[in-house]
Amino acid sequence: MTNNVKPWSRTESRDLITEMLTKEPEQAPVFIEDGCLVIRPKNWGAYYIGLDRIDTTIKLVWWIHHLCEKNWFDQEINQRLIELATERMGLKTYQGEG
Fold it and tell me: How many helices (H) and strands (E) are present in the chain, helices listed first?
């Protein structure tokens, strides 16, 4: 079986991340508001996590594991959640050029 999926270039990946990071809060699937990390899945309400409950890498892993059980938790939400949480912790998630 051949894999016809073209891998993303660094530029395409960086552009997608930039687009996700610059969306307005009401458009973004995950954003920070009033001391909470807010997750707004499509066709669902909002899920709030206090920033103090997701301020270490261990807590982040726990939350990702917990959220994976939700039927609305998708790759876009996961990626944005990781980016926002690690950014607040002072960690980098993208180690490539640019």
Answer: 3, 3
Please check whether residue 47 is in contact with residue 78, taking contact to mean a CB–CB distance below 8 angstroms.
no
Which structural domain, as residue segments, surrounds residue 30?
25-89
Q: Please indicate, yes or no, if residue 33 is contained in any of the structural domains.
A: yes
Residue 60 lies in a domain: yes
pLDDT per residue as tens, the chain (98 positions): 555 656 666 666 666 666 655 555 556 789 999 999 999 998 888 999 999 999 999 999 999 999 999 999 999 999 999 999 999 988 877 666 55
Q: Give the list of residues 6+ apart from residue 97 with CB closer than 8 angstroms, or none.
A: 10
* CB of 72 closer than 8 Å to CB of 44: yes
